[in-house]
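Example noted here:
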Amino acid sequence: MNSDTYKTIESSSQGIYKEKGSRFVSFAIPVSDQEEIKPIIDKIRKDNHEARHQCYAYMLGHERIIWRVNDDGEPSGTAGRPILGQINSFDLTNLIIVVCRYFGGTLLGVSGLINAYRSAAASALQNALITERTIQEYYEIKYPYISMNDVMRILKEEDIGQSDQSFDLECRILINFRVSSKEKVLNRLSRIDGIKCKYIETQ
Protein backbone atom coordinates (compact mmCIF):
# COMPACT_ATOMS: atom_id res chain seq x y z
CA MET A 1 0.00 0.00 0.00
CA ASN A 2 1.06 3.57 -0.60
CA SER A 3 1.58 5.81 2.42
CA ASP A 4 -1.53 7.84 1.63
CA THR A 5 -4.00 4.97 1.26
CA TYR A 6 -5.99 2.81 3.66
CA LYS A 7 -8.27 -0.20 3.35
CA THR A 8 -11.87 -0.47 4.51
CA ILE A 9 -15.05 -2.32 3.51
CA GLU A 10 -17.31 -0.99 0.78
CA SER A 11 -20.60 -1.98 2.42
CA SER A 12 -22.07 -4.09 5.23
CA SER A 13 -21.54 -7.84 5.25
CA GLN A 14 -22.46 -10.79 7.45
CA GLY A 15 -20.90 -14.06 8.52
CA ILE A 16 -21.63 -17.02 10.79
CA TYR A 17 -19.72 -19.58 12.81
CA LYS A 18 -21.22 -22.59 14.65
CA GLU A 19 -19.67 -24.50 17.51
CA LYS A 20 -21.31 -27.11 19.81
CA GLY A 21 -24.80 -25.75 19.24
CA SER A 22 -23.88 -22.07 19.68
CA ARG A 23 -24.28 -19.76 16.69
CA PHE A 24 -22.06 -16.72 16.30
CA VAL A 25 -23.62 -14.31 13.80
CA SER A 26 -21.31 -11.50 12.71
CA PHE A 27 -21.95 -8.11 11.14
CA ALA A 28 -19.20 -5.97 9.57
CA ILE A 29 -20.33 -2.39 8.94
CA PRO A 30 -18.39 0.60 7.52
CA VAL A 31 -18.29 3.68 9.77
CA SER A 32 -16.51 7.03 9.57
CA ASP A 33 -16.73 8.37 13.14
CA GLN A 34 -17.61 7.38 16.71
CA GLU A 35 -21.05 9.02 16.53
CA GLU A 36 -22.22 6.20 14.27
CA ILE A 37 -21.18 3.41 16.64
CA LYS A 38 -23.89 3.44 19.33
CA PRO A 39 -26.91 3.52 16.94
CA ILE A 40 -25.43 0.56 15.03
CA ILE A 41 -24.91 -1.48 18.20
CA ASP A 42 -28.39 -0.57 19.49
CA LYS A 43 -30.02 -1.70 16.24
CA ILE A 44 -28.13 -4.99 16.16
CA ARG A 45 -29.05 -5.62 19.81
CA LYS A 46 -32.71 -4.95 19.01
CA ASP A 47 -32.69 -7.12 15.88
CA ASN A 48 -30.91 -9.95 17.74
CA HIS A 49 -32.53 -9.60 21.16
CA GLU A 50 -32.55 -13.38 21.69
CA ALA A 51 -28.75 -13.52 21.47
CA ARG A 52 -27.06 -13.87 24.86
CA HIS A 53 -24.07 -11.67 23.98
CA GLN A 54 -23.38 -8.94 21.42
CA CYS A 55 -19.63 -8.36 21.42
CA TYR A 56 -17.81 -5.94 19.17
CA ALA A 57 -14.64 -4.18 18.11
CA TYR A 58 -14.10 -1.14 15.93
CA MET A 59 -11.22 0.73 14.32
CA LEU A 60 -11.37 4.33 13.07
CA GLY A 61 -9.13 6.73 11.15
CA HIS A 62 -6.45 6.23 8.52
CA GLU A 63 -3.81 6.21 11.27
CA ARG A 64 -5.62 3.25 12.93
CA ILE A 65 -5.17 4.57 16.47
CA ILE A 66 -8.85 4.96 17.47
CA TRP A 67 -10.28 1.59 18.50
CA ARG A 68 -12.31 -0.16 21.17
CA VAL A 69 -13.28 -3.69 22.14
CA ASN A 70 -16.24 -4.96 24.20
CA ASP A 71 -16.75 -8.50 25.56
CA ASP A 72 -20.39 -7.90 26.66
CA GLY A 73 -20.25 -10.33 29.58
CA GLU A 74 -18.03 -12.97 28.02
CA PRO A 75 -14.79 -13.76 29.90
CA SER A 76 -12.35 -10.86 29.51
CA GLY A 77 -10.32 -10.99 26.31
CA THR A 78 -12.30 -13.83 24.69
CA ALA A 79 -14.51 -11.80 22.32
CA GLY A 80 -13.64 -8.17 21.57
CA ARG A 81 -9.89 -8.77 21.23
CA PRO A 82 -10.21 -11.69 18.78
CA ILE A 83 -12.65 -9.59 16.71
CA LEU A 84 -10.18 -6.68 16.68
CA GLY A 85 -7.46 -9.16 15.77
CA GLN A 86 -9.28 -9.93 12.52
CA ILE A 87 -9.66 -6.23 11.71
CA ASN A 88 -5.89 -5.92 12.18
CA SER A 89 -5.20 -9.11 10.25
CA PHE A 90 -7.05 -7.72 7.23
CA ASP A 91 -5.33 -4.32 7.81
CA LEU A 92 -8.66 -2.47 7.83
CA THR A 93 -10.04 0.69 9.39
CA ASN A 94 -13.29 2.68 9.51
CA LEU A 95 -15.48 -0.29 10.42
CA ILE A 96 -17.16 -2.05 13.31
CA ILE A 97 -17.72 -5.79 13.68
CA VAL A 98 -20.46 -6.99 16.02
CA VAL A 99 -20.78 -10.71 16.81
CA CYS A 100 -24.03 -11.97 18.36
CA ARG A 101 -23.81 -15.26 20.24
CA TYR A 102 -26.85 -17.51 20.40
CA PHE A 103 -25.99 -19.91 23.23
CA GLY A 104 -26.37 -23.60 22.44
CA GLY A 105 -26.16 -25.00 25.95
CA THR A 106 -22.54 -26.14 25.93
CA LEU A 107 -19.73 -24.07 27.42
CA LEU A 108 -16.85 -23.58 25.01
CA GLY A 109 -14.10 -22.56 27.41
CA VAL A 110 -11.70 -19.65 26.94
CA SER A 111 -9.87 -21.04 23.89
CA GLY A 112 -13.14 -22.15 22.31
CA LEU A 113 -14.65 -18.68 22.70
CA ILE A 114 -11.57 -16.96 21.30
CA ASN A 115 -11.65 -19.23 18.24
CA ALA A 116 -15.40 -18.77 17.77
CA TYR A 117 -15.38 -14.96 17.90
CA ARG A 118 -12.28 -14.80 15.71
CA SER A 119 -13.81 -17.18 13.15
CA ALA A 120 -17.15 -15.32 13.10
CA ALA A 121 -15.39 -11.98 12.54
CA ALA A 122 -13.25 -13.51 9.79
CA SER A 123 -16.38 -14.92 8.13
CA ALA A 124 -17.96 -11.45 7.88
CA LEU A 125 -14.76 -9.96 6.44
CA GLN A 126 -14.35 -12.80 3.93
CA ASN A 127 -17.84 -11.93 2.65
CA ALA A 128 -17.06 -8.20 2.49
CA LEU A 129 -15.89 -6.19 -0.49
CA ILE A 130 -12.59 -4.64 0.64
CA THR A 131 -11.64 -1.37 -1.01
CA GLU A 132 -8.59 0.90 -0.94
CA ARG A 133 -9.16 4.62 -0.35
CA THR A 134 -6.80 7.56 -0.57
CA ILE A 135 -6.23 9.87 2.38
CA GLN A 136 -7.42 13.33 1.37
CA GLU A 137 -6.38 16.79 2.54
CA TYR A 138 -9.11 19.45 2.55
CA TYR A 139 -8.37 23.16 2.09
CA GLU A 140 -10.45 26.28 1.69
CA ILE A 141 -9.06 28.59 -0.99
CA LYS A 142 -10.04 32.22 -1.56
CA TYR A 143 -8.87 34.28 -4.50
CA PRO A 144 -9.89 37.35 -6.56
CA TYR A 145 -12.26 36.73 -9.47
CA ILE A 146 -9.58 37.87 -11.91
CA SER A 147 -7.49 34.79 -10.95
CA MET A 148 -10.31 32.35 -11.76
CA ASN A 149 -8.77 30.89 -14.93
CA ASP A 150 -5.39 30.28 -13.28
CA VAL A 151 -7.03 28.49 -10.33
CA MET A 152 -9.33 26.35 -12.48
CA ARG A 153 -6.48 25.26 -14.72
CA ILE A 154 -4.51 23.95 -11.73
CA LEU A 155 -7.56 22.21 -10.25
CA LYS A 156 -8.16 20.44 -13.56
CA GLU A 157 -4.53 19.52 -14.25
CA GLU A 158 -3.97 18.15 -10.73
CA ASP A 159 -7.33 16.34 -10.61
CA ILE A 160 -8.40 18.21 -7.47
CA GLY A 161 -11.85 17.68 -5.97
CA GLN A 162 -14.11 20.72 -5.56
CA SER A 163 -17.15 21.43 -3.39
CA ASP A 164 -18.98 24.25 -1.64
CA GLN A 165 -18.16 26.94 -4.21
CA SER A 166 -19.08 30.61 -4.22
CA PHE A 167 -18.02 33.03 -6.96
CA ASP A 168 -18.07 36.78 -6.39
CA LEU A 169 -15.45 39.56 -6.35
CA GLU A 170 -13.70 37.15 -3.99
CA CYS A 171 -14.19 33.51 -4.90
CA ARG A 172 -14.17 30.61 -2.45
CA ILE A 173 -13.86 26.85 -3.04
CA LEU A 174 -13.40 23.88 -0.74
CA ILE A 175 -10.86 21.62 -2.44
CA ASN A 176 -9.44 18.17 -1.67
CA PHE A 177 -6.48 16.19 -2.97
CA ARG A 178 -4.47 13.16 -1.91
CA VAL A 179 -1.83 13.74 0.74
CA SER A 180 1.05 12.67 -1.52
CA SER A 181 0.37 15.57 -3.89
CA LYS A 182 0.09 18.22 -1.14
CA GLU A 183 3.45 19.92 -1.69
CA LYS A 184 3.05 20.16 -5.45
CA VAL A 185 -0.55 21.44 -5.31
CA LEU A 186 0.06 24.07 -2.62
CA ASN A 187 3.24 25.21 -4.36
CA ARG A 188 1.39 25.76 -7.66
CA LEU A 189 -1.52 27.54 -5.99
CA SER A 190 0.80 29.81 -3.98
CA ARG A 191 2.07 31.37 -7.21
CA ILE A 192 -1.36 32.81 -7.99
CA ASP A 193 -1.76 36.48 -7.04
CA GLY A 194 -4.06 37.14 -4.08
CA ILE A 195 -4.80 33.50 -3.21
CA LYS A 196 -5.28 32.38 0.40
CA CYS A 197 -5.19 28.70 1.36
CA LYS A 198 -6.58 27.51 4.70
CA TYR A 199 -6.15 23.92 5.92
CA ILE A 200 -9.44 22.30 7.02
CA GLU A 201 -8.85 18.59 7.74
CA THR A 202 -7.31 15.30 6.68
CA GLN A 203 -9.47 12.24 6.22
